[in-house]
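Morning run. Coffee first, then this:
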Amino acid sequence: MSDAVGPVFAALAHDTRRRVVQTLASGRGATATSLAADLPMTRQAVAKHLAALQRAELVRSARRGRETVYELKPGPLGEAASWLATVGGEWDERLERLGRLFA
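And here it is:
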């Protein structure tokens, strides 16, 4: 497993961060304020979740005027999905072999 995958799974373990990623996946950037409007928490709490997503390299930020806009970086998600597909494929093979033993 790549060293980059662990932080991705850790970041996505929290439901709020998964919701933020889902919102950012729309392709439009969002500010902590706009994200907080859709969540039952303050802008400061959302900013802490965004910081965790940045540490996992799932989001990038850019200053636009007085606001910081966050965007999704999908690369680490692809790497995590690839890891899951590999592990899932190994289990599919094992289950298939087991099924043939009992067929």
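The mean pLDDT is 90. Good start to the day.
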